[in-house]
Design goal:
Chain lengths: 49, 388
């Protein structure tokens, strides 16, 4: 259970980093790519998938 | 100007992303929370949950219902476990048909419709499985959750690099730590699947189960199909059932549970309890890797031109033609084999006799369809309903 909680924290951390990269990126193509990658992290953190 | 254009595109992309997130999130949540309605047949005398046998499972996703059909006449106890692999729907339907229709005149029958309930709350990522399937009945459509082979990662995460089976130490694929047919006899402080197996072992011990039957389905590309796999403690019963069913009703093979293959129900339950275990496999073309469109129609009809073509090339271990393998035939095979095994068990073990009544024949189930045997929940009082 402890490891599971740590993995959720890691998923949330990577989610925030990806969102930050989306905001800061000047390259629109890369920004969209960050959003695509972000999707499974958000679904996992919200315990949807 | 360029900065404005960049933010407009990013804004549109974000809006689309939020739309996809919300719509997919709702679909996933609805599937995970959907409850199948089970009408308790006249034979059901009590409904317990798995947590009653092992406290740590209480209240978890895998705290499944245990339906008890007690004849009141001394005899043996049969445990039927279904949907350990929740992508094998004939097992779920066969167990529900038994709970709704069976009577017991000697001994007791215990049924777990969703042995690994967590696996029924997720479908396989990337395989485009339908989330639900419906069966036509005389009063409308009855809806069921489609599931996966493994427990939901939302309930058991992360997987180890390699799954080491307890207690044998045999190394298996990482995701099999969530595969309940690789975690027997279980471990009290293990993964969710290991704990669930452990809880079932406590149930078998506390209820003094005489015989356990584990229902499965398999792809036609897999050699263990259309067969009965038996622990050495029930070989006579399994062999006789295979011969009688093949001669009189439908072809079904029989295999001996391998001694060195660990974690499987037909090996470990018999080794670690007084109850031998028998596993049944029916043919499910939906699971074949060479299949075409993976939809509800394939799940229910078992018709697929690509699987058929593989059969023509001699690549399958079980025959298939343009009639496919319908859900009605697959359910009928399971229900009838369970009844035959019980009948033969009683013949060989009179002191732990178990006798069913009220189950339809193989021909009746195939002709009428499985939906014919489900009662409209709206016509039943609330205390005769259970939810899966």
């Amino acid at each position: 259970m402890t490891i599971m909680i740590l993995y959720y924290i890691m998923a949330a951390f990577f989610g925030v980093v990806l969102l930050w990269n989306f905001v800061k990126s000047k390259d629109v193509q890369k920004a969209i790519l960050y959003l695509v990658i972000l999707m499974p992290f958000v679904l996992r953190v919200f315990r949807l998938k | 100007m360029k900065a404005n254009r960049e933010w407009i595109i990013k804004g549109i992309a974000l809006a689309v992303w939020i739309g996809i997130l919300i719509s997919s999130g709702i679909a996933f949540a609805q599937h995970r929370q959907y409850k199948e309605t089970v009408v308790l047949g006249e034979g059901v005398t009590q409904v317990k949950t798995l947590g009653d046998y092992f406290e740590p499972i209480k209240g978890t996703t895998n705290d499944c219902n245990i339906y008890i059909l007690d004849s009141g006449v001394p005899g043996g106890t049969l445990l039927i476990m279904a949907a350990v692999h929740a992508e094998e729907p004939a097992t779920n339907l066969a167990a529900q048909l038994i709970v709704e229709n069976a009577g017991v005149t000697t001994g007791r029958v215990l049924v777990a419709i969703h042995e690994n309930r967590s696996a029924s709350t997720v479908t396989r990522p990337g395989d485009a499985y339908p989330q639900f399937y419906t069966v036509k009945t005389e009063w409308g459509e009855k809806k069921f959750r489609m599931g996966d082979r493994w427990a939901n990662p939302l309930d058991s995460w992360p997987d180890p690099e390699t799954y080491v089976h307890y207690p044998s130490g045999q190394m298996l694929a990482y995701m099999d730590t969530r595969n309940m047919n690789r975690t027997w006899p279980g471990r009290a402080n293990g993964s969710l699947a290991e704990q669930t197996s452990y809880a079932f072992m406590r149930l078998i011990e506390q209820e003094n189960v005489s015989l356990t039957i584990d229902l499965h389905e398999a792809e036609l590309e897999y050699p263990i199909i259309g067969t009965i796999v038996a622990h050495q403690g029930a070989l006579n019963v399994a062999a006789m059932a295979s011969m009688m069913l093949t001669a009189q009703e439908f072809p079904i093979g029989m295999e001996i549970s391998p001694l060195a293959l660990h974690g499987l129900s037909h090996r470990e339950i018999g080794d670690y309890s007084n109850s031998p275990c028998i596993l049944l496999e029916s043919p499910e073309p939906f699971l074949d890797r060479v299949r075409g469109v993976t939809d509800e129609a394939l799940l229910l009809t078992g018709k697929d031109e690509f699987v058929m073509k593989a059969g023509e090339k001699g690549l399958l271990y079980w025959p298939i033609d343009e009639n496919g393998w319908s859900i009605d035939i697959r359910v009928a095979r399971h229900v009838r084999t369970v009844e035959k095994l019980t009948e033969l068990w009683t013949r060989f073990h009179a002191d732990t006799a178990m006798v069913f009544s009220g189950l339809p024949s193989y021909e009746e189930m195939v002709d009428n369809g499985v939906g014919h045997y489900f009662t409209d929940p709206a016509t039943v009082s609330a205390n005769r309903l259970a939810f899966e």
